[in-house]
Amino acid sequence: MSEVTRSLLQRWGASFRRGADFDSWGQLVEAIDEYQILARHLQKEAQAQHNNSEFTEEQKKTIGKIATCLELRSAALQSTQSQEEFKLEDLKKLEPILKNILTYNKEFPFDVQPVPLSFSAHYFSCPFSCRRILAPGEEENLEFEEDEEEGGAGAGSPDSFPARVPGTLLPRLPSEPGMTLLTIRIEKIGLKDAGQCIDPYITVSVKDLNGIDLTPVQDTPVASRKEDTYVHFNVDIELQKHVEKLTKGAAIFFEFKHYKPKKRFTSTKCFAFMEMDEIKPGSIVIELYKKPTDFKRKKLQLLTKKPLYLHLHQTLHKE
């Protein structure tokens, strides 16, 4: 096995485990992201015509079938139907097959077929018109992606598109003596093209200095209204960890996302973050930064020089 193939298999395995972990934790948006990204990588390899591939045609067929199963699990997570679904325990059976793809010679455990890459987005039924949700930064890797900072989100009325699934907000944690809980009300975000954003919502996460999640990720519902240069949310986020238990250097991230009808995916437009020394009762406005989301806070670029910010209000709860 060449070093290139070994590295490729390691990346596939890591992506598979991330998706399954998110799935088991109930972080469905993140699981769908990971499954769809990995499925596209596997489909590309399964259909590759280059001569330097170490995979046989039979192995490519198996890789394509694993991609199909990832798509099926992704569709099942998005489905509101009570039909038979592809379950997580089924998907987990495929991890050793992917890991040992060069030596696997048994019959594939599921009756599926590889689906062409260009056809897969339309092949799998999902209730949101097969919308794709991209992981932070993935849109920068798409060849056909255009710069949206000066343009808009695309023409069209929000009423022309199916409503997005409601948010994934979590309730407040139980109180503990001497410990502080934080409620963050996301009031509004200022954007010069606010009125053009379709189905906008915000993903909230708490990361350490290495960009590792410290709490479950939460999505707000779609914004309540758009007015002039503001998108209004007026929604409360309950931090899923006592403030005193957050690690040094942690930060709370807010990723503004919206649907792009021309490309049929949900994309991150910009992000903001709040560091631990900014946790204090009352209102706060924080700056907006250009995508991709930099969870390590090493290469930050302001979205605009205009006075447009994310407006928040913090409430501390302590017994």
What labels describe this entry?
AIDA_N, six-stranded mixed β-sheet, five-stranded antiparallel β-sheet, alpha+beta, Aida_C, Immunoglobulin-like, elongated, phosphatidylinositol binding, Four Helix Bundle (Hemerythrin (Met), subunit A), AIDA_N_sf, coiled coil, 25% helix
The first-level CATH class name of the largest domain: Mainly Beta
The CATH architecture of the largest domain would be Sandwich
| DSSP E strands, number | 11
Name the structural class. Answer: alpha+beta
Q: How many structurally independent domains?
A: 2
Q: Short description, anyone?
A:
This protein is α+β, with helices and mostly antiparallel strands.
Overview of the structural elements:
Acts as a ventralizing factor during embryogenesis. Inhibits axin-mediated JNK activation by binding axin and disrupting axin homodimerization. This in turn antagonizes a Wnt/beta-catenin-independent dorsalization pathway activated by AXIN/JNK-signaling. This protein is an alpha+beta fold and 319 residues long. It folds into 2 domains: 3-121, Four Helix Bundle (Hemerythrin (Met), subunit A) (Up-down Bundle); 180-318, C2 domain (Immunoglobulin-like). It is 25% helix and 24% strand. The chain has helices spanning 3-25, 28-46, 57-78, 88-92, 95-99, 117-123, and strands spanning 132-133, 180-190, 198-207, 218-219, 225-227, 230-238, 251-260, 265-275, 282-287, 289-290, 309-318. Helix 1 (3-25) runs antiparallel to helix 2 and helix 2 packs antiparallel against helix 3 (57-78). It is elongated. The N and C termini lie far apart (59 Å).
